[in-house]
């Protein structure tokens, strides 16, 4: 029986060395999770089906389990490098259409702009609107926008201006530029439409507002009137509609709302605090960022930023039940249970760190110590065989 025990010990030690060697070999593999061998004793009583212990038969490998502890996160300069800080797996679609899961976030773009792994698996996520709000719970492949964001015609203008309460009352339009400001709006083609606003105090707490479009004479426009109360708060004329025209064709007109509700009248110099409008010209993609919620934000040459989807994460009730295949992919099994899907930062899911990668969680120092310990165990079991052989030789040599 000593031979059987020693052989079992040699096999177990050899299997342990295989696992330790695999861990050491992948100490630099992104997102790799280390494994450990879990041993179990073997008794003859188990084979006989009795409760009495008749003698130990050695050892067996009960299980090889993966350890899903967090790996170190290191910064990179690649916007598509993603690290999960906490629970969860990236869900990808393999080239054969099957679902797989990985912690390796070293993604890249293919020829179509689709975000893929090094082996061509497609990263899955949620569709969003331009502001990053999720529009569906159905996963889709994530694609980096590569085209041109179209121009948007100005439809709303807002002004925050402080008017001088001590300004002189005037009815002359000879010089309207003393209290004036201008801004750029856009037509449907993204062409610039220059808009001017000119303020003339016609009575205490009452002002006329003249406008110009693309350099037109302000005095030729029909003014609208705004009024303030005794505290300098706007009480009338706060919402207006402007008629604008394209610089290419003045007959092509469009309207934009003008919000003057933030105007104030105090004894101060004329001050333009803020002018905003919602139009923009066409723009090309200049950069892509991914925030800690996994939302892809595309920035364009026209200073517009639009969301292009959200990375999805998957988790399992029993991650150690996942099956594993080449290139660091896991797949669902009966033991793991079905994937629980969500977004980074939601519930039990970890956050996303962009321009970073998660290192292997292999503790190289501990693995080297384990290797030496296992080597000693292998040598000890070999010595058991040698000793048993010497005993047998002694018996054989008896006369």
TrEMBL record:
One of its GO terms (cellular component) is cytosol. Its main location: other. Residues 83-146 form the Flagellar hook protein FlgE/F/G-like D1 domain. Residues 167-280 form the Flagellar hook protein FlgE D2 domain. InterPro entries: Falgellar_hook_FlgE_sf, Flag_bb_rod_N, Flagellar_FlgE/F/G, Flg_bb/hook_C_dom, FlgE/F/G-like, FlgE_D2, LlgE_F_G-like_D1. It holds the Pfam family Flg_bbr_C. SUPFAM superfamilies: Flagellar hook protein flgE. It is found in: Bacterial flagellum basal body. GO terms for biological process: bacterial-type flagellum-dependent swarming motility. Residues 6-31 form the Flagellar basal body rod protein N-terminal domain. Residues 353-398 form the Flagellar basal-body/hook protein C-terminal domain. A flexible structure which links the flagellar filament to the drive apparatus in the basal body. Belongs to the flagella basal body rod proteins family. This is Flagellar hook protein FlgE. The lineage of its organism: Bacteria, Pseudomonadati, Pseudomonadota, Betaproteobacteria, Burkholderiales.
